[in-house]
Amino acid sequence: MRHRKKFNHLGRKTAHRKAMLANMASSLILHKRISTTTAKAKALKMYVEPLITKSKNDTTHSRRVVFSYLKQKEAVTELFREVSPKITNRNGGYTRILKTGNRLGDNAEMCIVELVDFNETYTTEKKAEAKKSTRRRRGGKSAAKAEGTEAVEAKAEEAAEAKAEEANEAAEETDKKEE
Q: Under DSSP, is residue 97 helix (H, G, I), strand (E, B) or coil?
C-alpha cells in the first residue's frame, strides 16, 4: 500500500529514480525545454523547483547542494549564471507543463516541460504596433503621399481637359459642316 507516500515512485527503485530525475533536471536546465510523460514531468517539477529557488542565493554552499542533486557541473553553472538572474523576481512556478497528447507506441500521456522565463512566445513583450496613418492632407508621410497623388491628379485633369477640348473642336466642326 502507498499510504502517506508523498511522491510518485514511477515504477523504479530509489537509485534509478534519483538518477533519472537528476538527468532530466540537468537536461531541462541546459535545453530549457524537454519532452516527457506527464507523470515524469510532475515528479521533475517537484525535483527541480527547489533547486531553482536555491540558485537565487549564489553561495558556495548552495552550489554544492545543487550539485549534489544534479551531478553535472555544466548544468550547475548554467543554472547559476543564466537561469537564476531571470527568475530573481519570481516567487515560484519556474516550470510549465504543456500537454501534447498521447504517444503512439504505448498511448502514454506526453507533455513538454519548460522553464517559464525562457519561452519566447510568452515572454517577449508586445512591441508597440505601428500606428496606422490617418488620411489627412497635412503632416509627414501623408503630405509626401499627397504631393505625389496631386501630381498624378494634375496629369489626369490635363488629360481630361485635352479630351474635352478635342470633343468641343469635333462638335464645332460638325456644326460648320451642317451649316
A: strand
Question: pLDDT value at position 71?
Answer: 96
What are the φ/ψ torsions at residue 97 (nearest 5 degrees)?
-110, 120
Given a contact cutoff of 8 angstroms between Cβ atoms, the answer to whether 99 and 105 are in contact is no
Contact 112, 98 (CB under 8 A): yes
- Across the range 99-120, mean pLDDT stands at 94
* Sign (positive or negative) of CA dihedral 151, 157, 160, 162: negative
Q: For residues 132 and 26, which has the higher predicted lDDT (pLDDT)? A: 26
Query: Which of 171, 47, 126 has its CA nearest to residue 34?
Result: 47
- Looking at the predicted structure, is the pLDDT value of residue 167 above 80? no
Which DSSP symbol is given to 101?
E
Distances (CA, A) of 33 to 56, 101, 112, 129, 152: 20, 17, 7, 30, 57
Mean pLDDT of 105-127: 85
